[in-house]
Amino acid sequence: xxxxxxxxxxxxxxxxxxxxxxxxxxxxxxxxxxxxxxxxxxxxxxxxxxxxxxxxxxxxxxxxxxxxxxxxxxxxxxxxxxxxxxxxxxxxxxxxxxxxxxxxxxxxxxxxxxxxxxxxxxxxxxxxxxxxxxxxxxxxxxxxxxxxxxxxxxxxxxxxxxxxxxxxxxxxxxxxxxxxxxxxxxxxxxxxxxxxxxxxxxxxxxxxxxxxxxxxxxxxxxxxxxxxxxxxxxxxxxxxxxxxxxxxxxxxxxxxxxxxxxxxxxxxxxxxxxxxxxxxxxxxxxxxxxxxxxxxxxxxxxxxxxxxxxxxxxxxxxxxx
Length: 321
What we know:
Layout: E1 4-8, H1 12-23, E2 27-31, H2 35-54, H3 60-69, E3 70-73, H4 76-80, E4 83-88, H5 94-107, E5 114-116, H6 123-126, E6 136-141, E7 150-155, H7 161-172, E8 177-181, H8 190-207, H9 212-226, H10 232-239, H11 241-251, H12 263-270, H13 290-320
Parallel strand pairs: 1-2, 1-4, 2-3, 4-5, 5-6, 7-8
Antiparallel strand pairs: 6-7
Helix pairs in contact: 1-2, 1-3, 2-3, 10-11
Family: Belongs to the 3-hydroxyacyl-CoA dehydrogenase family.
Keywords: Oxidoreductase
Pfam families: 3HCDH, 3HCDH_N
């Protein structure tokens, strides 16, 4: 009987995905190449489950049950033998993913979805060795996977739309907010928007208009405060498309339109200033703590998830009256 969700790769992403699968009530098998790695992955998944329960994102009963639903394996074929859905979360290497997908495609019944958590590769390319690419799809969870609600469900050139919709609907039951991306383009959906923000942010710093800290503050304390419940297209409708058009025609001619990385970023890399891992990038990390900043980020995400959940419940209650 096919009842398990199988997560192949138990690192930072795989463990978070496994936690969400188990919290949704699925028997979940974490798979990795070594026993020590997969056991460490299970520990991380349990930590994710307990954090969500402590923060009120899941009730205690869900958390206790989820811990009992987590299993581990170092045998991909054996684990896949009971899979009703497989999510790959291994190293971001095209050849490695292609080989794994070819293997899974060969051993799994054709109705079992094979998903990839890739953030940058095309599912069309990943599934190119498969005999049944129609059952392959990207499920791009955003880091941290156990907190950020977004999952981008990306259809490849040969993905069956009904299967993609089925996967999307499955992820809704995982307390996720999945979006269906109908074309397999670089950057998927959200990263295309994010890269546009990053490009302009770097250009602003490079031009001397503002410091990196002021750019981040302007985004974090401005537009980002609205984004959990107020996307840019809803904003345009609210202010009026005529006003939005006028602003665009004024501002867009002066916005960066480079089709390659900014020279300012290239110079930082050339000088060995790679960010946290070298101690300096846009910020001087000898004077800051990335652990503290990450903890603040995660707590903000938790509070945002709680707030949007309350708003959704209030809206649903109003509609039902």
